Amino acid sequence: MSFKAAAIQMCSGVDPVKNAAAMARLVREAAAKGAIYVQTPEMTGMLQRDRAAARAVLADEAHDIIVKTGSELAAEFGIHMHVGSTAIALADGKIANRGFLFGPDGRILNRYDKIHMFDVDLDNGESWRESAAYTAGSEARVLSLPFAEMGFAICYDVRFPALFRAQAIAGAEVMTVPAAFTKQTGEAHWEILLRARAIENGVFVIAAAQAGRHEDGRETFGHSMIIDPWGTVLASAGATGEAVIIAEIDPAAVKAAHDKVPNLRNGREFSVEKIAGAVAGGVAA
Fold it and tell me: 255 catalytic, yes or no?
């Protein structure tokens, strides 16, 4: 059956309490517009580059305000509420970049820890080392929901097509990519990567994003998007500011895309052999 999905764009600051209130306000708007699945961005609860300051306000899962608020909102509106991710304190002193999907009764149906760590050095001097503070996840899941089969990713995961292909082969019809993409990488790659993951797997992609200049000084790209299995952008937000975007998701479009281009069925095993190029006295045999 078709359903209304919403992606919420935020500009999360350093105070989890304020961010929880902003999330609640935007989720109420999405629910009022008929969305039964609502997704928030990566790091909904806090964007804080100062690691000591972040650790001072982090909580474990049982005491986290974003987890609590997400559960309450799901139960209040009878929706599937997807906190794209929030920082969760772990017992070993490290942090999980963890997403939560709550059912209409407020129970946690799925947890997903970001698998690929954003350890990069960008051209403008920006440098990120997520692995210094975060524990990477190691498990991907496809969750059967009343309206669709759903797969999970977070931000930098979108650059690893094998994750999406494995979930598509396992039956995923909708892939979720909550993110806090940097402005520099977003301008170059955000839409291209999201549309590519949708097209090559014949799935819907829902990507709620952080947007604008944040309290900790970073700048994120925004442009939250919902994309269909043919690569068409069904809904998108702007570069800055809060937004709620909504699109109708019809899982039948996934089958239609797979029937047109059955690349999931046509894939074949192959080997890769590395060979020498030109050699002295001629060309390699």
Answer: no
> Which amino acid type is present at position 7?
A
Report domain extents, the chain.
Answer: 3-283
**How crowded is the C-beta side of 159, counted as CA atoms within 13 Å?**
16
CATH number of 3-283: 3.60.110.10
pLDDT of residue 52 exceeding 70, the answer is yes
> Among residues 11, 155, 173, 183, which one is catalytic?
155
Q: Is 11 a catalytic residue?
A: no
Tens of pLDDT, residues 161-202: 999 999 999 999 999 999 999 999 999 999 999 999 999 999
Question: Out of 4, 11, 42, 149, which one is annotated catalytic?
Answer: 42
The tokens for 35 are 């969305």
Q: What's the pLDDT tens digit per position in 217-230? A: 999 999 999 999 99
37: Cα separation from own chain's centroid: 14
Q: Is 114 a catalytic residue?
A: yes
